[in-house]
Amino acid sequence: MGNKLVWTPDLNTGIDVIDKQHKRIVDYINQLHDASISGQQREAIGEVIDELVDYTLSHFAFEESMQEEANYPFYKAHKKVHDLFVKRVSSYQERFKQGDDVSEDLNNMLVTWLFNHIKRDDADYVASVKANLEEHGFTEKKKGFFSKLFG
User: Fold this and answer.
1) 13-53 pLDDT, tens per residue?
2) First vs last Cα of the chain: how many Å apart?
3) With a threshold of 0.85, does the pTM exceed it?
4) Which residues have CB under 8 Å from 55's CB, separation 6+?
5) Which long-range contacts (CB under 8 A, 24 or more apart) does 67-75 make?
6) What are the tens digits of pLDDT across the range 66-97?
7) E-only strand ranges, the chain
């Protein structure tokens, strides 16, 4: 099993709410790493996988809504990347439920994918979303709703 993930400044998008969500995903990946190497029960590992997937799906939905509001021109392409990732993770989840030990493979895939996605795909939408946030402000109503999810 590889090393734990460490957040580095080059992963910051400059959009605080997005960076907090990405850091939380990194925390979940590290929890999966810890659960796997400490030989925790399958049930505990399964719970971490489920939480990681649920949180990541919520994050994707949030990111996509921000892109859509900003009229980001590559919104649909970005969503396709998210959808493909979800399919990959779901297949790991399914294999895990069938008894396969997928922890190490899943962990490695998550690390590689997340960092590449943040540095490449996410970096591409930052300017559009930031400009939109500055123009319209990040409304308190929306902030309240998402702080329940991501607070």
Assistant:
1) 999 999 999 999 999 999 988 888 887 788 888 998 999 89
2) 30
3) no
4) 24, 25, 28
5) 67/125, 67/128, 67/129, 69/132, 69/136, 70/125, 70/128, 70/129, 70/131, 70/132, 70/133, 71/128, 71/132, 72/125, 72/128, 72/129, 73/128, 74/124, 74/125, 75/125
6) 999 999 999 999 999 999 999 999 999 999 99
7) none
At 58, is the secondary structure helix, strand, or coil? helix
* Cα separation, 16 vs 90, whole angstroms: 28
| Domains, in order of start, for the chain | 15-150 (1.20.120.50)
What's the gap between Cα 142 and its chain centre? 19
pLDDT at residue number 138: 60
Joined tokens for residue 136 = 């319209």
- 42 is written with which tokens? 């399958």
